[in-house]
Amino acid sequence: MIRVAILHLQKNNWAGGLNYLKNLFYAVSRLDNRNIEILLFTGQKTDSQFIDACRPYVTIVQDSCFDRKSPRW
């Protein structure tokens, strides 16, 4: 099993990047021999619609340390 970690930096105004990530996650999930697990690291303030769109395809790891300008950041 290959595990790939992706850090989402919450640039929600970059719609192309969000669509790219969602399409990438979907494409990997459609592989016949799926031996790739994707982990998406993101903050607690990340848009819930983006999280819900990605949840079927990746493992979501949310933590406030990934929220820009939070005390843990």
Structure notes:
By secondary structure, the protein is an alpha/beta fold. It has 2 helices and 3 strands. The chain has helices at residues 15-29, 48-54; strands spanning 2-7, 36-42, 59-62. Strands 1-2-3 form a 3-stranded parallel beta sheet, covered by helices on one side. It is globular and about 40 Å long.
Overview in brief:
With 73 residues, the protein is of the alpha/beta class. The protein has helices spanning 15-29, 48-54, and strands spanning 2-7, 36-42, 59-62.
SSE topology sketch:
Layout: E1 2-7, H1 15-29, E2 36-42, H2 48-54, E3 59-62
Please state the average pLDDT score: 86
Structural class determined from secondary elements: alpha/beta
Query: What portion of residues is helical?
Result: 25-40%
User: Mind telling me the C-alpha Rg?
Assistant: 13 Å
Order of strands across the main sheet: 1-2-3
Which parts are unreliable, with pLDDT below 50 for 5 consecutive residues or more?
none
Biggest sheet features = 3 strands, parallel
Strand content: 15-25%
| Number of DSSP helical runs | 2
Helix-strand pattern: EHEHE
Annotation, overall tally of beta strands: 3
Estimate the global geometry from the Cα principal axes. Answer: globular
Ends apart, CA distance between termini? 30 Å
